[in-house]
């Protein structure tokens, strides 16, 4: 069943329809929140708060808009609010362990990858909020420029500019890791 129809049914009080939407979008929103907040616990809290907010605001949902875009917007807003209220912490729980026999499984290579991951996390944390949100939505979530503009309530040229500045900054910061 399409998200729009599920959202319409949920707006009428159908909890089962909303549960389907939660199951359908929870993992991608957790990945988004973890990228923006830096740790799993804060991400879990942000996504839970976003779904509670969405449940309450379903009657306001414009059914012409994509549900996932609307949920991204709510989640991004919650993450930005949380970042303003408390200092962010960086987590390495997103580091993937290399498989045995993989050249990356050598201790020196593994240490180098972890150091690069930490450097990238710090570089992302140093971006301004607008640039970081646009970069995460594009590079990690795969959203189109139009979808990012919708989520950030800006224009596509603004999104392109923020992405360009974010990429340039990350390229400068991560230059030694090339």
From TrEMBL:
It comes from the Bacteria. Residues 119-170 form the RNA polymerase sigma factor 70 region 4 type domain. InterPro entries: RNA_pol_sigma-70-like, RNA_pol_sigma-70_dom, RNA_pol_sigma70_r2, RNA_pol_sigma70_r4_t2, RNA_pol_sigma_r2, RNA_pol_sigma_r3/r4-like, WH-like_DNA-bd_sf. Keywords: DNA-binding, Sigma factor, Transcription, Transcription regulation. GO terms for molecular function: DNA binding; sigma factor activity. GO terms for biological process: DNA-templated transcription initiation. Residues 21-86 form the RNA polymerase sigma-70 region domain. Pfam families: Sigma70_r2 (PF04542), Sigma70_r4_2 (PF08281). Belongs to the sigma-70 factor family. ECF subfamily. NCBIfam families: sigma70-ECF. This is RNA polymerase subunit sigma-70. It comes from Streptomyces longwoodensis.
